[in-house]
Write a structure and sequence with these properties.
Elements (H helix, E strand, L loop, with lengths): L2 E4 L4 H7 L4 H8 L10 H10 L10 E8 L2 E10 L6 E9 L8 H16 L4 E7 L3 H9 L3 E3 L5 E5 L2 E11 H6 L1
Parallel strand pairs: 4-5
Antiparallel strand pairs: 1-2, 2-3, 3-4, 5-8, 6-8, 7-8
Helix pairs in contact: 1-3
Length: about 180
């Protein structure tokens, strides 16, 4: 059984261990960190002292998923509008030893419950790299739908260009799922 709690600084070591190389790290963080590798202190500083790089106070909520074996996943929630009706999920990651067993879908469902039932959001959004098919399928299975973008976003990793697909789910869609 997967549960969700607020992130603790002790979680950083485990979460960062799931990114064994820069490619997996960038799949998780995109350009949100300047360099790889990142030390647990860097992650904790970004979260605790820099508010996750959010300019607005009280806008960044890192969460950790855990099961009977310990830390199993992680993500952040942050408001994207002044009215606090839209939450964006980010830094979504699951222990690579637990992938393919429904942990990602359950993590997303727990985050949606937080966003809609506790934070009062009306919509939740996220972005995923186009070639990250397991994550793409996970988000669809959790009820997200793809949103067409006026100006598609991309991330550059070396000589590669990674298109980003936007997803969203409304509170109404969540209630029906």
């Amino acid at each position: 059984m997967l549960r969700l709690r607020h992130y603790k600084s002790a979680d950083a070591q485990t979460i960062l261990s799931w990114c064994r190389d820069e490619r997996s790290f960038r799949r998780w963080t995109s350009d949100r960190y300047d360099a790889f590798p990142v030390a647990p202190e860097d992650m904790n500083r970004k979260y605790a002292q820099c508010n996750g790089d959010c300019a607005e106070p009280d806008n960044f909520y890192p969460m950790t998923a855990f099961d009977e074996d310990g830390v199993a996943g992680h993500l952040i929630l942050r408001y994207t509008d002044a009215a606090r009706t839209c939450i964006r999920l980010g830094f979504v990651i699951v222990d690579d030893g637990k992938r393919g067993r429904g942990y990602g879908k359950e993590l997303i469902r727990l985050a949606l419950r937080y966003a809609f039932d506790l934070f009062g959001a009306q919509k939740v959004t996220l972005g995923v790299f186009e070639d990250n098919l397991p994550a793409y399928r996970c988000y669809q299975a959790a009820g997200f739908r793809r949103v067409e973008q006026v100006e598609p976003q991309v991330f550059r990793f070396g000589d590669e260009v990674w298109p980003i697909i936007e997803f969203e789910i409304t509170k109404e869609e969540y209630a029906q799922s």
